[in-house]
């Protein structure tokens, strides 16, 4: 009896050991080895949009050059919303890189009077610096012509913008692009015409398609201004659509166009270009868009 009892205990122990062994194999997936206690988690993928780029290049027109912000009929790049060093503006570059970093790693290739057709050439110069972020603000001069019929056709505007982004992508596949909407020119007319001096300056030929005959309110004048305004809206639609096709491009969602600026944000010399205060507001909009966790619904 004692021998059978001992033999039974041996058989039971073997059976339990076999069962535990089988359970252990199933727990790690068949014949797979048990996970190492020192295994490291997989690294997180690099986000497509870096909210803190280390260098900035700006392209565009007179707004980005700070024209008439500091003195009459002259560029003032130190007051530029994109790359300026002025403490009053606190430019996008300064906000992103700090004052010392902005002085070393930001560049302004915008040109006063530039239109979208000039953007590809500016992009070619900017990419030589290999910036991590390129800012784009252009289009006002395409609408500000002698007459509405002289405005840049929407198809040409689109083709030149697409060409610019293609050139950028070929040279810098991972560079980020911030695109600002074209400002609301009709609001500019509405605000600036309250200044007698502003209207006198406009007579010298500033954006005649919108600002000419500033006090005229007849049907022909209204049609002219509405035609220009519609073209600006069409340009912004192009900027939004083309930018949306590029995973590293952010449009401002129409924030510049929608901004309710007043005369304090307009140059006291021409009541058209942004003042230092206006440049600071543009910098705020750009910084908010670039550092947002997600692009705006309109962008």
Characterise the protein shown here.
- By secondary structure, the chain is α/β, with parallel strands linked by helices.
- The chain has twelve helices and five strands.
- A five-stranded parallel β-sheet has the order 2-1-3-4-5, with helices on both faces.
- The radius of gyration is 30 Å and the shape is globular.
- It starts with a helix and ends in an 8-residue tail after the last helix.
What is the fold's blueprint, element by element?
Blueprint: H1 2-27, E1 56-60, H2 62-65, H3 92-105, E2 106-108, H4 119-126, E3 133-137, H5 140-143, H6 154-171, E4 176-179, H7 185-192, H8 196-202, H9 208-211, H10 219-244, E5 249-251, H11 255-258, H12 276-291
Parallel strand pairs: 1-2, 1-3, 3-4, 4-5
Major sheet summary line? 5 strands, parallel
Task: Tell the overall outline.
Answer: globular
Mean pLDDT: 88
Share of residues in helices: 40-55%
Ends apart, CA distance between termini: 87 Å
Number of strands: 5
Q: Which class do the helix and strand fractions yield?
A: alpha/beta
Q: Which strands sit side by side, in order, in the main sheet?
A: 2-1-3-4-5
Low-confidence stretches: 1-37
* Total of DSSP H or I helical runs spanning 4+ residues: 12
Question: Which key terms come to mind for this protein?
Answer:
299 residues; alpha/beta; 5-stranded parallel sheet; 46% helix; globular; disordered N terminus
Précis, in short:
By secondary structure, the protein is an alpha/beta fold.
């Amino acid at each position: 009896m004692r021998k059978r009892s001992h033999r039974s205990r041996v058989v039971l122990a073997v059976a339990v050991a076999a069962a535990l062994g089988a359970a252990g194999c199933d727990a790690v997936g068949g014949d797979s080895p048990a996970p190492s206690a020192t295994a490291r988690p997989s690294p997180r993928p690099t986000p497509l949009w870096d909210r803190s780029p280390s260098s900035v290049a700006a392209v565009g027109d007179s707004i980005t050059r700070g024209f008439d912000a500091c003195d009459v009929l002259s560029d003032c790049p130190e007051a530029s919303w994109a790359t300026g060093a002025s403490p009053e503006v606190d430019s996008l570059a300064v906000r992103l890189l700090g004052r010392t970093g902005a002085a070393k790693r930001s560049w302004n290739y915008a040109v006063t009077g530039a239109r979208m057709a000039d953007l590809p050439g500016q992009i070619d110069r900017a990419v030589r610096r290999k910036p991590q972020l390129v800012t784009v603000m252009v289009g006002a001069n395409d609408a500000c012509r002698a007459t509405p019929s002289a405005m840049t056709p929407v198809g040409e505007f689109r083709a030149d913008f697409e060409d610019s982004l293609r050139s950028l992508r070929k040279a810098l596949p991972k560079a980020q692009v911030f695109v600002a909407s074209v400002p609301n020119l009709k609001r500019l007319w509405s605000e600036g015409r309250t200044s007698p001096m502003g209207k006198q300056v406009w007579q010298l030929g500033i954006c005649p398609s919108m600002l000419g005959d500033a006090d005229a309110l007849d049907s022909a004048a209204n049609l002219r201004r509405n035609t220009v305004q519609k073209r600006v809206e069409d340009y912004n639609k192009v900027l939004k659509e083309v930018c949306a096709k590029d995973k590293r491009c952010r449009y401002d969602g129409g924030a510049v166009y929608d901004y309710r600026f007043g005369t304090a944000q307009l140059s006291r010399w021409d009541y058209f270009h942004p003042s230092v205060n206006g440049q600071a507001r543009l910098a705020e909009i750009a910084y908010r868009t670039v550092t947002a966790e997600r692009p705006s619904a309109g962008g």
